């Protein structure tokens, strides 16, 4: 087998739009799987990276790390999958496999740094990794997930990032019955956080800047809703939450949200705005509060989350788009005009 050229959508620079292009996928090695990509979710991280908002983008850049598809080739020593199976790839495609974190099934915290699905380093081809806005992807089977057969495939794609990125901290901070959890920012991540926290048995409080999302929040599973732009509502809910998951993509005043925590409460950031977020010492000190962060989730956690979603019939609320509409979708994402995840129908790439 040899390397192959496949169709993709790429951007050449931070100020450029994404457009049709081609990339090289490596020949399938003995442990690899080739997936024909059927759907790919559009994460705000795709936009941050395409526009170099995190200051490390290697161009050309092909975003996309919420990938579902069907297996078209398997390497000679692959054991988990066979040709024709559904399969999924999330935010990582490799790690060192030997460090303490990798040994403990926490590849996302690999001490050498996990290899991201896009804008990472493909050691086989000695080039940047390219993501899911493409026809096919070749990945080591260890980083490929089994997809439940009973879920809508397009609506399953966002579970690969938005799902596991909210699942992992909710599990880590033991969210479940008896826990009041606040979810801040009801976008792709936030809406999954609400669904998952509710299914885990927690008391779920949505904290949003958008009055238009109040009605939806109940449907997603919220027990209570706080409009964060309304000071009276924020004051009335001071010291009420055990844990807050902050899924906000832009600058915001974290101190205002920390006020909502009880003594010993934790606010964990998964949202990753471009600029630092100032924290006042007295937002943390008087009630021994914790300010934390969390990145994606391990392969084991991703599979557990997918299986949990299959059992509880949980998928994302999506709007299906053609790849040719991706630049417009980014503008709408920035404007908060998505309920709640764009997913690209990759058949459109062949148009
Ligand atoms: P998204 O769909 O654009 O959602 C972001 C939400 O943040 C919006 O829907 C909005 O919710 C809220 N928001 C936006 N601007 C705000 C502002 N100025 N003040 C307060 N709230 C604001 O984005 P996403 O795909 O869910 O991603 C969210 C963030 O998580 C991004 O920064 C992304 O890069 C990051 N991320 C991190 C990880 C990780 O591993 N830690 C993984 C994936 C993504 P309301 O309308 O409800 O206020
Ligand atoms: Zn993502
Ligand atoms: Zn490692």
Question: How would you explain this protein's 3D organization?
Answer:
This protein has 351 residues and is an alpha/beta fold. The chain folds into 2 domains: 4-161 and 297-350, Alpha-Beta Complex (Quinone Oxidoreductase, Chain A, domain 1); 162-293, Rossmann fold (3-Layer(aba) Sandwich). Helix content is 24%, strand content 27%. The chain contains 11 helices and 19 strands. It has helices at residues 44-50, 100-103, 153-156, 162-172, 188-199, 214-220, 231-236, 254-258, 281-284, 299-312, 326-334, and strands at 4-10, 19-25, 32-41, 67-74, 86-89, 92-94, 115-116, 121-122, 127-128, 136-140, 145-146, 180-184, 203-208, 224-227, 241-246, 261-269, 290-293, 318-321, 341-345. The strands form 5 sheets. Strands 3, 4, 5, 10, 11, 18 and 19 form a 7-stranded mixed β-sheet that branches. Helix 5 links the parallel strand 12 and strand 13. Helix 4 (162-172) packs across helix 5 and helix 4 (162-172) packs across helix 10 (299-312). The longest helix is centred in the C-terminal third of the chain and has 14 residues, at 299-312. The structure holds NADP nicotinamide-adenine-dinucleotide phosphate and zinc ion (ZN) (2 copies). Residues 43, 45, 65, 91, 161 line the site of one zinc ion (ZN).
Task: Report the CATH superfamily of the largest domain.
Answer: Medium-chain alcohol dehydrogenases, catalytic domain
Instruction: Give helix and strand order, one letter per element, not per position.
Output: EEEHEEEHEEEEEHHEHEHEHEHEHEHEHE
Return the CATH class of the largest domain. Alpha Beta
The small molecules bound here are:
NADP nicotinamide-adenine-dinucleotide phosphate, zinc ion
The total number of structural domains is 2
* Total strands: 19
Strand content: 25-35%
> What is CATH's topology name of the largest domain?
Quinone Oxidoreductase, Chain A, domain 1
Task: Give the helix tally.
Answer: 11
Overall pLDDT metric: 97
């Amino acid at each position: 087998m040899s390397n192959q050229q496949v169709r993709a959508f790429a951007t050449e620079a931070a100020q450029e739009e994404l457009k049709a292009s081609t990339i090289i996928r490596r020949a399938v090695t003995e442990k690899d799987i080739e997936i024909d990509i059927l759907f790919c979710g559009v994460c705000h991280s795709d936009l941050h990276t395409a526009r170099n908002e995190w200051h490390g983008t290697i161009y050309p850049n092909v975003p996309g790390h919420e990938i579902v598809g069907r297996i078209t080739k398997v390497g000679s020593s692959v054991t988990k999958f066979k040709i024709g199976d559904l399969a999924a790839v999330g935010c990582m495609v490799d790690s060192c496999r030997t460090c303490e974190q990798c040994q403990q099934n926490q590849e996302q915290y690999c001490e050498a740094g996990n290899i991201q699905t896009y804008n990472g380093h493909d050691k086989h081809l000695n080039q940047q990794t390219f993501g899911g806005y493409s026809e096919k992807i070749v990945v080591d089977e260890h980083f490929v997930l089994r997809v439940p057969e009973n879920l809508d495939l397009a609506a399953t794609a966002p579970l690969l990032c938005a799902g596991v990125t909210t699942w992992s901290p909710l599990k880590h901070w033991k969210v479940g019955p008896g826990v009041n959890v606040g979810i801040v920012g009801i976008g792709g991540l936030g809406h999954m956080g609400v669904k998952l926290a509710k299914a885990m048995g927690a008391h779920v409080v949505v904290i949003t800047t958008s009055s238009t999302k109040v009605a939806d929040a109940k449907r997603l599973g919220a027990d209570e809703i706080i409009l964060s732009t309304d000071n009276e509502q924020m004051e009335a809910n001071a010291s009420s939450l055990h844990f807050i998951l902050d899924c906000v993509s832009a600058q915001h005043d974290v101190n205002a949200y920390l006020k909502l925590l009880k003594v010993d409460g934790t606010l964990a950031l998964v949202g990753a705005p471009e600029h630092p977020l100032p924290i006042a010492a007295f937002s943390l000190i008087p009630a021994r509060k914790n300010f934390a962060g969390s990145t994606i989730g391990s392969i084991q956690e991703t599979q557990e989350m997918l299986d949990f979603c299959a059992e509880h019939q949980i998928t994302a609320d999506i709007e299906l788009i053609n790849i040719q509409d991706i630049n417009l979708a980014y503008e709408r994402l920035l404007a908060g005009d998505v309920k709640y995840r764009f997913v690209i129908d990759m058949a459109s790439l062949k148009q």
